[in-house]
Amino acid sequence: MGGLGAIGVPGLIIILVIVLIVFGPKKLPEIGGAIGKTFAEFKKSTKGLIDDEDDPAKKEEKKPDVS
Asked: Do residues 28 and 20 touch, judged by C-beta distance below 8 A?
């Protein structure tokens, strides 16, 4: 198993405590907002790439005319 499940709850709590100590409570909302915007932009970009590949009309336009 990979991903977040491998870290577990105790590991996640330790990471959050370290982040709180390093950045302080006043910076956490700013950091959270920046991370959220980054993930939203990444999701938007990957969705655009997937939509381009799945759209059959766009595939037809890209094929060269052999006649």
From this structure: yes
| Sole residue written with tokens 């970009």 | 45
Instruction: Record the tokens describing residue 62, joined without a space.
Output: 């890209």
pTM of the model: 0.48
Contact 21, 14 (CB under 8 A): no
Distance between CA atoms of residues 58 and 49, nearest Å? 12
Long-range Cβ contacts of 41-47 (<8 Å, 24+ apart): none
For the record, the structure tokens of 49 come out as: 């790439």
The more confidently predicted of residues 15 and 48 is 15
**Contact call for residues 19 and 28 (beta carbons, < 8 A):** yes
Question: Measured between alpha carbons, how far is 46 from 35 in angstroms, rounded to an integer?
Answer: 16
